[in-house]
Each structure stands twice: as C-alpha cells, then as structure tokens.
Amino acid sequence: MYSRKPFYIIVAALFLIGFALMLQRHFVYEVPWLPGEKRQIWSIEAKVEFEAKGKPVKASLAIPGSQPGFTLMNESAASPGYGLAFVEAKGGSRAEWSIRNASGPQELYYKVDMMHDPFAKAPLSTEIPRIAQTEVPEPYATAMDQVLTQAKERSADGLTLARELLKELKNSSQNAELLAQYQSPAPLLIEMLHRAAVPARLLQGLQLEDGRRRQPLVNLVQVYEGKEYEIFNPDTGEQGNQEQLLMWEYHSSPVLDLVGGSNSRVTFTMIEQEQPVNVALAKKFDQPHWINVSLYNLPLEEQALFKGILLVPIGVLVVVFLRIIIGIKTSGTFMPVLIAMAFIQTSLITGLVGFLIIVGTGLILRSYLSHLNLLLVARISAVIIMVIGIIGFFSIIAYQLGLTEGMKITFFPMIILAWTIERMSILWEEEGPKEVVKQGGGSLMVAVVAFLAMNSEVVRHITFNFLGLQLIVMAVVLLLGNYTGYRLTELKRFKPLVDEYNTDSKADNKIEDKKHD
C-alpha cells in the first residue's frame, strides 16, 4: 500500500515555509498585515517614446518635486547609452538626456517615489504669470465676450469668475458649443481669463490610481486673485487641490522638449505601495536583497500585472473548496475564476448582466449551427466569431444609449465564453435545459464567491505583499484534493434513510409506552 506520509510531509513543509516567509516579511521588513496601517507611497514611472533621426538627440522632461500633499522620496532614470542630468530650469526641475547619435525608436524611463504627506507644505509656483492678450478670430471673439459678460454678472473676483466660466462652458448653449470647437477646455479657460485681465497659467497633473498603465497627464488651470490662487480642473469643473492628484508640471513649461527626434509621447505607469514610515524613509526596496523576496523590485508595469495574477490562486482555492467539499457543479473546471477576473474589471452587476446577455444570445445562435452538422473545429471557430460580434454589437448599443458601464463587457475572455456556449449547447441536447441551468447557475455562483474573495482589499494587500501565502494556498489545495468523503450536496441521498430511522424510532417509543401502561 502506498504510504501517505511523504504527501503530508510536503504539505506541512509548504505550509511552514509559507508561514515563515510571511512572518519574516512582517517582522523583519515591517510590512503590515492589513492595508492602510502605514505610510502611502506612490511609485510613478514616466516612459518617453520617440523616433530618433540619426543625429544628436536632446530630450528634456519636466519632473515633479515636493508639493502640498506629497513629499519626494526618491528618483531615478534608465537610459542606456544616454547621458543624464537633473537640472533646474525656469524654477522647475527637469531630467535631461543627451546622446551624440541615435536612430529609430527610442525609450527613456524616469521613476519617482512620492510619499503621501498631509504635512508637506512645499508650495507650487506663486509667481503671478504675465497676462497675454491674443487676437481671437470671429465668431469666437463675440462668443467669448458674451460668455464673459454672463459669467462676470455672477462673480465677485477672478476665482469666482473662473468657476462661473466653467459652468457656462459646461452648458449646452450655442456659445459654449462654438467655443468647444475653437480650443480644448484648459487653453480656452486661460484665454478667456486673460481676456478679463485675470492671471492664470496651465498646469499638468497626474490622476493617481493604483495599477494604472499608460496614463496621460490631466490639464489644469491655476487662477490667481492677488497672491492667492486656486486650481481648477476644466474637464470636471472641480476646484481646489485633489487628494489623488499629483502636479507634474507647474511652471508653464512643456512636459517634453525634444531636439533631434519626432513622434514623441510620454505615458505614465503608477502603483500604490503601503509601506511603514521607517521603511519608506530608509528606501529599503531601492537596494534589493536576496532574502527580501519582493515584487517591488520589478518594473512598475510588471508590478501592476502581478497584482492581478496573484489573485488567481485565491479564486482557484474557492473553486476547489466549492466543488470538492460543497459539490457545486460548474460548466468547465476553472471557468468561474476567469469570469471572476472579468467581474473585477467590469464590476459585479455589469459583469453578471453582460455574461447572461452574451451566453444567452450565443446559445440561441448556436442552436442554429447544430442543424448544419459542422465539424468541431469549424463549429467552435464560428461560435468565437459570433461571441466577438455579440460583444461588439452590445458595446455599440450601450455607447449609443449612454451606458458606459456596458462597454466593459469587452473584458470577458472570448475563447472561454465560446467554449462555455459550446459546452452548454451540447449539454442542452444531451441532458436537457435543467442540467444547463444547474451547471450555468453553479458557475455563476462560484464566480461571484470567487469575485468577493479576490476583490477584498485585505486579500489584495496580503497576496501582493506576502508571497508566502501562495505556498499556504498550495498546501490547502493539496489537502482538499486528498478528500474522499461525501460532498455536502450528496448528503440529501440519505434523507430517506433518516426518515425511516425517525419513523422506526417513533414506533419503538410507542411500543415502550404501551408496555409501561
């Protein structure tokens, strides 16, 4: 007989090693068990892309510094073959790359760590900008004057004028629609304020959102009233400093100044890190050690990717438990995990509605294919194309109706949906609609439970910061895989036996009562 002792030794070793790694991360590197306990650090990576023309190249990128709400912790740059210098220009800091000769596609990287610090008081530029009067062609000049006249009547100073101008430009009047064709919101607001002799300048900020990649900058307007100023977001109409908005360029200079290249683009990747204050100040993650197994040492794009990947084992554990212990039937073994990952991107309600629409429509169309007697490969290929068409059709309908949430159904894995439709269609033909509802409903229920587990902030924090948890999950999965007992849903087969036992017990009790009488 095969001994189970090595199996249990492996499981125990996985559990102990995983638990030891988690304890080491907590006590040695002071990584908190729960999110939000320590200091918040934003790691931001700017990627500069351009085409070099085979001659000397000089690229100058605006970079942020300490400002209200944020303290600069660390900055670095990656530029193979390029010279690099951090310089002060026009009151602001810039990173300058240079090379004697370059050709073809070029990529330059700048990384900065900003600590969220409510006590940071380093001010933005308070130098009042010069008011520039520009000649505006007709009919835009007349429209500007009319909008300014209406806004001035409801304002008391430059700050309230800016606020009222944003309200006027947001409504659906003819003047607002005409001016929207003339300029984008931020330059338009600045030009109108200058027309009213109110000092204002263009700022560019970065909206901080954990895990975002290829994020552009947001145009903002700094409006002055005497020595005081306020910051306005022309796109949303919001006034004042936003907590999750980092000012990237605030000296009225170009974000990127490029000589010797063309087709330039700057994109940003960001990730939020929960670090203890002393760890953040010591910058421990800037000097990785082989004992400190940390994903923070990877590039930011890979970190953002791993934040999602490391949630998959949690979903797998949920599926294993619900299938082996509870006995819930699903259509496909791990399809619920993929559906749960899609729910994370779309939100739960939108994901459920989108899944039901796609699968329901796909089953109707698939029923027609069953009459054509196609080969399996051709049939699956046709279903995949139909799924793509269904998703595209409903995305267009959702956009036309103004339901922007509906467009998120594109996050569903199309190949898996096609196989799901195929399996359910075959199951319908062989077992009937009852079994389809049972397995389809089971898949959705397991997907919802997996989504709730994977979408938890605590789970997200632990899976990313404590890699030892993966070994513990592996140990639990192996133990569950060794279970050979009854599933909970199978216990109902013993109901007649229990009823018979209860009936016999009642009969025996009656006989005993008669004997006593």
UniProtKB/TrEMBL annotation:
Domain Inactive transglutaminase fused to 7 transmembrane helices: 25-182
Pfam families listed in its UniProt record: 7TM_transglut, Transglut_i_TM
InterPro entries: 7TM_transglut (IPR025840), Transglut_i_TM (IPR025838)
Keywords: Membrane, Transmembrane, Transmembrane helix
Top-rank taxon, per record: Bacteria
Domain 7 transmembrane helices usually fused to an inactive transglutaminase: 254-497
Transmembrane segments: 6-23, 304-326, 338-364, 376-399, 411-428, 440-456, 462-483
Name this protein carries in UniProt: Gonadoliberin III
